[in-house]
Input
Amino acid sequence: MSAHREHDHDHEPGAGHRHPFQPDLEDGPYTWHMALTDAVADLLLAKGIVTPDELRRTLEEIDSKNPALGARLVARAWVDPAFKARLLADVNAAAAELGIDAGGIPIRAIECRPGEHHVVVCTLCSCYPRLLLGPPPDWYKARAYRSRVVREPRAVLAEFGLVLPEDVRVIVHDSTAELRFMVLPMRPEGTEGWDEERLAALVTRDCLIGVAVPRPPSA
Ligand code: FE
Output
């Protein structure tokens, strides 16, 4: 933490109460939810239920997650039909097979097929399989995406550069606090014989949300 931050922390109203592990994002007011988060964190620390180091380590662990973990699951599913079946049955258990702790909230994989495309949203807030894919992109949390992708998914996907043929059905999945989703995209043509690592490199974060599809590098 810089000396400047220390100064802000001491004297800025509202932001003055933020914990050092929460950056002072200067893009909005100190909200009710931020105050609630701070109050709960203060209580947990004050009562010795968690130590500052445990809290920091947990946040560090969460921040270490990234879409490459989800990409590994997809690549394995593409080369191993039995694994794919297990992934579709239980993402958290399938992730554990690869040594990935995807957390305790169930994640469901939804498989794209010819004529059927899937895309994920949380219309209410920003529910997302963070423990598998890392933090969601800012647009995922934005009101515009959350409201529009449900009403006009094709138009929204086109804005992401994904123009789907009219005969492809688009299915939107609304995440909740109890159930999160990852998209299992179709394996691109021209990748026959590729190993898992090379395949995984094709699967970006946006492919796992469903606003993009994996393409071979030549495409
Ligand atoms: Fe949410």
Summary: The pocket of fe (iii) ion is lined by residues 122, 124-127, 175 (CB under 6 Å).
